[in-house]
Specification:
elongated
Length: 45
């Protein structure tokens, strides 16, 4: 696993949680997280 990619996913996840608490739209951020997770999974395969 790529530690830098994992840190980016964690950072995005924390940002998502913060935006949700503040009531901001989060669909774009959810798509970015999904894309990062998919790329990580493809590299592992």
């Amino acid at each position: 696993m790529d530690a830098e990619r994992d840190r980016e996913i964690i950072r995005l996840w924390n940002e998502l949680r913060r935006l949700q608490r503040e009531g901001h739209p989060t669909a774009v951020l959810v798509r970015r997280i999904e894309k990062a997770l998919a790329e990580r999974e493809q590299e592992a395969a």
